[in-house]
Amino acid sequence: MDKLIIEGGLPLRGTVRISGSKNAALPILLAAPLLDSPVTYRNVPNLRDIHTTFKLLKILGLETEFDPASATARVSPAAALNPEAPYDLVKTMRASVLCLGPLLARLGEARVALPGGCAIGARPVNLHLTALEKMGARFDLESGYIAGKTSGLRGAKIVFDQVTVGGTENLIMAACLAQGETILENAAREPEVVDLANFLIACGAKITGHGTPVVRIEGVTSLSGPDYPIMGDRIEAGTYLVASAITGGDILLENCPCEALDAVFSKLREMGVVIDETPGGLRVRPGGELACADVTTLPYPGFPTDMQAQVMALMCVASGAGTIRETIFENRFMHVQELVRLGARIKVSAQSAFVRGVPRLTGAPVMASDLRASASLVLAGLAAHGTTEVARIYHLDRGYEAMEVKLQGLGARVRRAKE
């Protein structure tokens, strides 16, 4: 396994290009089994999870090509689709369960291993299954696999008990080829859900209301592959916003999905970060003294849970005190003890973390527990005095494209090494 070695204390300066969105690319790629002609994807990030997705598509029988240099991928339909997504792949990437809806819609059957991924709390798939059952699917649990069958999906009115991004995505994809109209109420509104819907519309789907709590899908008989650019990654962009702020730097972000970052912009500006939209991109530069704030994670358009750990790192070196309340996942404070190893002052009680800023952090060996925790430790290491070693960065590689290379381009002293 690899680790990152960071010599902190330098302000970051320069321009960084934001890659395509991992959380948008995964469902859009996994929609490929729905299509009856080749599809070209652009702005595809070169990430571990993306490569896992291509492996899964190949196992399902599709032909895939990916050129990381041009961020372009092409996927061609299968002569015969395989309905099984094996455990060896699904256990490493939770999003693999998103092939369930497309396989049921196209084949009438699917056998998908129960998902794995980051250990940040329970993310049950029962919401997906209950909704698909209303459309005519039947499920059994067989040796750790979800085995689903249907004689044909039919449109239905579905009210989600709670907002679910994956459930909304799975149901939108399944409904595209179902008979009749499907109505999803209490649907997720995330920009990545909207990007998936826009992709499917470009394929010939009939979808309205995406980006609102009520989404309507009128089933069609077939979908054709377009040439489609995936949106920029709002979480990567938010992470580099914090990287600039935590080091007192001056960074220009290119390919930044500004319209998807309102909640992040608002909270960072409240903390004293200066953010300006310019013709060349998004500029983040020093303002006055940074101050802690209170943050509550919420479904979009609220503050994203995927930015909680990064903002916590920033609060560690801001003045005053603030509270971070995590409402999405019950086990997403595993980075706290590692930040404390760097000198942070944080106390956790139930689903809240109380942060009091310190004058400076000090480098130390730390270990990443999940994807966004990895990013928070890298950010803290960039601000810390001395050397920080971040172990188990395979988590980082799941969601950040060449992070150490991008940081080096901004003047950071960071390198990758073997543990």
Write a structural description:
It is a single chain. Strand 10, helix 6 (165-176) and strand 11 (181-185) form a beta-alpha-beta unit. Helix 4 (100-107) packs parallel to helix 6 (165-176), helix 8 (234-247) packs parallel to helix 10 and helix 10 (308-315) packs parallel to helix 12 (371-383). The protein has 419 residues and is α/β, with parallel strands linked by helices. The chain is globular, with a radius of gyration of 21 Å. Strands 22-23-1-24 form a 4-stranded mixed beta sheet. It folds into 2 domains: 2-17 and 232-418, UDP-n-acetylglucosamine1-carboxyvinyl-transferase, Chain (Alpha-beta prism); 29-229, UDP-n-acetylglucosamine1-carboxyvinyl-transferase, Chain, CATH 3.65.10.10. The protein has helices spanning 22-30, 48-59, 87-90, 100-107, 126-134, 165-176, 191-203, 234-247, 262-270, 308-315, 336-341, 371-383, 394-397, 403-409; strands at 2-7, 13-17, 39-42, 63-67, 72-76, 84-85, 109-113, 138-142, 145-149, 157-159, 181-185, 206-208, 214-218, 227-229, 250-254, 274-278, 281-285, 295-296, 321-325, 345-349, 352-356, 365-367, 387-391, 413-418.
- Tally of individual helices: 14
In percent, how helical is the residue content? 25-40%
Query: Which homologous superfamily in CATH is the superfamily of the largest domain?
Result: Enolpyruvate transferase domain
Output the strand order for the largest sheet. Answer: 22-23-1-24
Rg, Cα atoms, Å? 21 Å
CATH level 1 class label of the largest domain: Alpha Beta
The average pLDDT is 95
Distance between the termini: 6 Å
